Amino acid sequence: MTETMVTASKSQSNNLLRRDVRFLGNILGEVLVHQGGTELLDIVEKIRETSKSLRAEFLPELYAEFKTMIQELDSDNRHQVIRAFAIYFQLVNIAEQNHRIRRKRDYERSAGNAVQPGSIEKAVQDLKERGLSHTEVEEILDDLSLELVMTAHPTEAMRRVILDIHKRISEDVMSLDNPTLTLREREQLREKLLNEVITLWQTDELRDRKPTVLDEVRNGMYYFHETLFHVLPDVYQELERCLNKFYPDHDWHVPTYLRFGSWIGGDRDGNPSVTSDVTWQTLLMQRKLALREYQRIMIELMGHLSFSTNIIHVSDELVQSIEQDRNSVTLKKVDIWRNEKEPYRIKLAYMIAKLNNVLDENKLGQPDRYHSAQDLIDELMIIDRSLRHHFADYVADTTIRKMIRQVELFGFHTAALDVRQHSKEHENAMSEILAKMNIVEDYARLTEDGKIDLLARLLDDPRPLTSPYHQYTEGTKECLDVFRTIKRAQNEFGNGCITSYLISMTQGASDLLEVMVFAKEVGLFTKGHNGDVVSTLQAVPLFETIDDLHAASDIMQKLFNLPVYRASVKGRNELHEIMLGYSDSNKDGGVVTANWELRVAMNAITAVGNEHGVKLKFFHGRGGALGRGGMPLNRSILAQPPHTIGGGIKITEQGEVISSRYSLQGIAYRSLEQATSALITAALNGLEPQESASERHWDSIIKEISEVSLTKYQDLIFRDPDFFTFFKESTPLPEVGELNIGSRPSKRKNSDKFEDLRAIPWVFAWTQSRYLLPAWYAAGTGLQSYYQDKEENLVVLKEMYASFPFFRTLIDTVQMAVAKADLVIAKEYSAMTSNKEARDRIYGQIEAEFKLTKELILKITGEAEILDDVPVIQESIRLRNPYVDPLSYMQVQLLSELRDMRERGEDDTELLREVLLTINGIAAGLRNTG
């Protein structure tokens, strides 16, 4: 494809995006007139045009007129204007997501034999061009592992019903691309979309209550039902297609390398609503989803597998299997397939019944149900072999093989559920149990070495620690019940349903040993007479703060030096999972230091693992926001040092990232395709992961930059006594807590201390107020400490940006934050601060740092404007800002009114409602909010 053709294709594609945005905007305009009259539309248009003019050229008199216009809106009109801008963003987001799918299809249609960058085909082509044999490729595939873990972290500000409306609008807008539509069909589509936008306008976007944990579980399962059950096997199929294309002499079956997990219903850190019973109910709901999906697929298969023995001969194996089912499975009359000449339909009827019987506890141990997912796979393989027996290979490849892959991926539990709890909860329970058994009077007061020695002895001791005759506090009982639930779940759903137990705020080796002692108590950890250990649950440390990251390698060294712990790792195929927290480390040290210390920690922990012959799987706790490690999935994989991915990668998928990536099958497919391509590329890079002398030199430079940046960051965040008050008063932090977007409290404890504030509301509030401070603050000072206005130092920084992936990722992340931040609007928020001296001083520091950071980013990247190298995103931000700005100004006004009212001991639910609507609108406008 020629460059001219590519340019023409992109231009035509962008025209279609503009068409969709204009089309949806016009429909919204009609709805505004229909619901509020031409006066409402005129007000919205005047605000939009003025905001747009201000973005084109900032004129003080126009700025004053704009603010007056907003301030003079009466309550009714203001409410409608807020909703108009918020819904406009929802429609723009739908158009942009659809356009991503369109761009991929356009590329594939017009590229001819060209291979799309970032595709699976490009990654496999690279393997072939590097001269790797099929045996070497198989070895790479055997070591690939990527697990994407959904969390219920409260950053998704949108209700499920709104997401459903969005999905319908998306499907209808995509239909506009169909060139065969008649004029009447286009009119009908427009009428349908008008109805959907009216429904959207008249649907409350705010929740009337906080969701329960099981509500969050249902929300998470929505994406499996709507998207992942269908898309994930297609990604595997594409990888096998590409392997067969470039390595045609080998028969490929790709091992399971990409799967999904979940924290929803298992993450109890700081959330007392997640009980052992809730975890059990979660597992039951996940199993039911998987079984119902398989039944749905089998019903579809019955419509396709109409092969008749009047024409073909099925395998004897299939005939025998049907006879066994007849003898053991009782079907309802309505479920019996009457045509004896159609054996596949007869077999599928029995299989559907056996799936249904899995849900019946009275059928445990009976032959008329499946006892494991492998039982189902075995029977699907019987069908597969029989189809090939009478040369229906294509049917086997396109239907049965896909379902086999689905069962391999989702089992009878849909997704592996991780359990997470704060380390202090385990220590409290252990202290009580050991005191009641007269083992030690006050376990918590022991030194760390004393705890390690005691816990190691307890792991070696086969005797139980608890007694049914002892009465324990509720906290200790619940702690023990969680482990009993995990054991029960593994017995019922298979060991794969829960394998990882994450420990928040891990600060010592004893934090992991406590979990292993509890695991031993319920039979999840057993040590044989020969010293071999069988452990079906692994304690996973979560290193979150800068201090924790510093201590991480020493903690793992101590654990690996303990024979009993080392034996447990050996029992898990010499693999250990380590979780790294991006949110708290960023809150603790700022974006530069957090990213640097995470890199240092990964390298140090990997060295310890290599010393002991242990492969490490790093679990990256990234949020959606730039200030919490957020970035595209493929970039987050390629950002890791190649030598640290040998044991696999886990990454959290949080909040609004889940809906933006997995609501639509086309978007989900592209995201997972890019992730697979990045994973293969990273593995290829890791074949020769020798660190160059240049990289060692660059590391030393970043270390110095990080140290200066950390001081700058903590001088403001931790050492300025007025800062936390400034933060609370100049952002909507208190009001964000009133959005019913999550079951978990926004603070770890009921306190107003900065250290007890969770990283999510910290980042969310800064994003709402347009500062985006956690994603860029102190980067400029750090970079300036090396640059020092010396041209030769700038040359080095430019070389690092061009050739050092870690540094490039860091700079691009900061650049994105600078592009989205707006210090002019942020200043309006700062005006809400009561202490004028502190306000002027702190805002002045932030503004100066912002200017310095932006200046240095442009010098290092060589761009004239921020994001010149990513014009699609640059244009998206440019187009969105005039619509976000009015919401921000209205939010400042509303917050001021609401807070003044509350200062007088009064309240206004409608005023609060308007504040919350602006929060939703700004979240939709800026995206990647938390």
Notable traits:
930 residues, mainly alpha, two-stranded antiparallel sheet, 65% helix
Describe the structure.
This protein has 34 helices and eleven strands. α18 packs parallel to α20 and α24 (693-717) packs across α28 (779-787). The longest helix is centred in the N-terminal third of the chain and has 54 residues, at 3-56. The strands form two sheets. A nine-stranded parallel β-sheet has the order 3-2-1-11-10-9-8-5-4. With 930 residues, the chain is mainly alpha-helical. It is globular. β10, α21 and β11 form a beta-alpha-beta unit.
Q: Which sequence of strands runs across the widest sheet?
A: 3-2-1-11-10-9-8-5-4
Overall body shape = globular
Q: In whole angstroms, how far apart are the ends? A: 40 Å
Work out the helicity level: 55-70%
The residue ranges in which pLDDT falls below 50 over 5 or more consecutive positions are 1-9
Summarize model confidence as the mean pLDDT.
91
- Give the biggest beta sheet: 9 strands, parallel
Give the strand content: 5-15%
Number of helical regions: 34
